[in-house]
Give the backbone structure.
Amino acid sequence: MVPHRSRLAALAGLTLVAGLAASTPANADEVSELAPLHPAPSSENGELTHQANGLWFIELESPPTTEGTSPATVDGEHEDFRAEAEEHGLEYTERHSFSELWNGLSVRMDDTQVGTAREIPGVSAIHPVLTYRIPETGENVPDLDTALPMTGSDIAQNELGLTGEGLRVAIMDTGVDYTHPDLGGGGFPNDRVVVGHDFVGDDFNAGDPASVPVPDDDPQDCNGHGTHVAGIVGAEGGVTGVAPAVEFGAYKVFGCTGSTTSDIMIAAMEQALADDMDVLNMSIGSSHSWPQYPTAVASDNLVDEGMVVVASIGNEGATGLYSAGAPGLGEDVIGVASFDNTHIQAASVTANPSGEALAYMEMGAAEPPPASGDTDELVHVGRGCTALGDEVADLDGRTALMVRGECTFAEKYDAALDAGATGVVMYNNVPGMFAGGGIVDRGAFSIGVSDEAGAHLLELLEGDEPVTLTWTGEDITIPNPTGGLISSFSSFGLAADLSLKPDIGAPGGLINSTYPMDQGGYATISGTSMSSPHVAGGVALLLQARPDLDSHEVRTVLQNSADPKAWWGNPGLGHPDNVHRQGAGMLDVPGSVLATTTVTPGKLSLGATGEAVTETVTITNDGDGEATYELSHEAALGTHGDTFAPGYNDGSAEVAFDSDSVTVPAGGSAEVRVTVTPPAQDFEQMIYGGYVTVSETGGETYRVPYAAYNGDYQEIEAMTPISDGSGVVADLPWLTRITECEAFSGLDCASDSGGTFENQPDGASYTMEWVDGLPDVPYVIAHFDHHVTRLDMVVIDERTGRPVHPDRNVGVSVDHVHRSATRTSFFSYPWDGTVVDRHGRITDVRDGSYRLEARALKALGDPDNPDHWETWTSPVITIDRG
């Protein structure tokens, strides 16, 4: 992750935002591109995560104390930084200092000082302190019965007698409603929620620069998300969670609404460690990030300390590849993908004149449907992405029936109401139910129904009788057409360093669980936020059954027994979905509990492969007798092409073993060399993968997922123009200045969504001061199609054409830049007019003319290889301080 601003502002009139036994040989002639039967649902109401205003992590050189550094050394580095910062004139306010899980500080300072801070002796990196929004929720009745069988948790409970008793699970979230009878009831602490802490207070919202955390010892949930997550882990009562006898630690890092920050998360991690938690669930993440981000590194150190860490991988599937987020990207973290629930329990209406009951879900903040009565007559208006007055003359006083797609839910809703509609029914353009957001109530209801329900209503409209809906106030349970398939929102891997993520999946689409008592007691929510606690609860059951497992071994055992699922785009083809989308597959709790074999490592991250790669797997027989294992290979689908909208292909690697069968005595192990030859590079930017399968004769099959980039990873262009998918919209990077700013925060106008950048293609003059309430400093804005290992901006003296100081003259230097979230989003980098001279001193440049040369080292690039750098030089910047 990097210290820069994620922006969504108006730009150019658009929104920017040896004797080998072979298995499954590859055949270039058979590689083909595959098209899904239905398009993936679009992100009509998706939101991007913005960096908190003026908040930064400053990482220091030594590892934290959990990695063996003495407390005195870490404390000394903190004091040295404070002294050096004062000497260099760095203006900042310290928020938190960290020593156990991550070594550094979080501070508030102006963006223009980031380059200065990066060059202070002892600073190894600077990262933004990111904000994390609370996912939207929707109410429904309690039922986890259809989700638990997907992971075998019901079998683990009812047949194996596992409940998670004796295990402590930390919930880092919005808190937990401990008064809920399914979560202990009564006051805090109780017999279920045994410890906890509120790190922020109810009124805190990181999106408001004036908001300040007010910690206390009461982790009561005033939002609902954390209570829902806790219920999935271990509710017992009206609903039954995965591990209904665990004890909870509640770590509240959100207020009632809005967002939190990543430094608060690390503080909560340290408290969970102090409270001796066995498992930590974090249904939180920052998309498109690196495994080197502080929350991921701190999580890895928790695992080293004996805690199993489980985290959602993210809900950014609609933004394409490499969209997974920290902390789920941590090397030792279990990053969890989402599969859709097999059934949906929802409110229903009766379609007239057929009398058929149709399930629906409420849309955003639109007015709730009434409990009884009929709608006005339905009129079909198609997609409704433009004004409907002329298109549908008879919509006035009627209910609009619309199909999902092409524009946002809010645009459809508003267009229908502007044309006189009294309500809006939207049906899906892909199989399954959906619940959209983003709608602002205008006094009319809006509901979403499935594609099948939409087809039924269209058929009725072809008849002679008027079509209406009758509100029944009843709920129904229906099969989910996408049940058991990857959820459309679930983020893709790989990680930017080509490590295999996500690790495993679990039910996360349309999950019913506990909710605060004052908000109805139960709710339905979709997201990897819901799949992660299924795995956290599964970990508790596994540890109860197998307490000998080390915290580093748990993920491997889970991955070995997981069940890969078919490709969402066409399940009938029988191809497993992308490994870099589902990881090892669906969690199988009884499979992991009863496993008598372990195959290590639990996954193979092969990196960028231009030729065959050989790895070694170790098969350990934990059973009571000798066992014989057959080795084979199962290919999964690959992706290729556009990062933001990848294509799919069936290119299969050739996988061979130095022995296709091994016999292992009880308690023994055997090593097998696995050679993976990549498929033909028929497409650009291919990612391929599959599963090494180890089948015990007469017994179970265990798997090790693998994935790799096919070709030269550094061929991916990183610093690119922004595009709408069909052509260039703006030829970034740009030299810019801020020309206006709404809701100025007092820190940095560029941190606010109202800030407007103006291109300066012919160069510009800057005073380096505040002018009319705005910072008059140069900004470089850039779009990144892919992650960048390092971004430097070197200051060039226009008079000489050379750097100001040949040895050290960096104006801006940031590490681990994540890719832009969308085709048209960008980052902004301010320069404060300083450089670092050859003696390491930070100095102001003299007034005069300069250029900024941006140098981007591609992901995993070799800094000594010029071909791994991309370079851009700005127009002339004139510094005139007056």
The two ends are 37 Å apart (CA to CA). The chain has 13 helices and 56 strands. The longest helix spans residues 528-545. The first strand starts at residue 5 and ends at 7.
